[in-house]
Amino acid sequence: MLTHPTHERLITLGLTGMAKAFEEQPRSPDLDAPSFEERVDG
Fold it and tell me: Which of 13, 19, 36, 38 has its CA 20 to 30 A from that of 28?
């Protein structure tokens, strides 16, 4: 999944909190698997 378009789309939809969490996910050391995208789509 492309990060930038996803982040922009979340903001466009008014989901700023989710957009912020989306940005922070890769920096979170305790989230090895599944990825944020997998958790959202799951």
Answer: 13
Spatial contact of 4 and 12, defined as CB atoms under 8 Å apart = no
**How does 6-33 read in b/e, with b if 16+ C-beta sit within 10 Å?**
beeebeeeeeeebbeebeeeeeeeeeee
Alpha-carbon distance 15 to 25, whole Å?
15
pLDDT in tens, 3-17: 578 889 999 999 999
Residues 6+ apart with CB under 8 A from 6: 22, 37
Residue 31: pLDDT band (50, 70, 90) is low
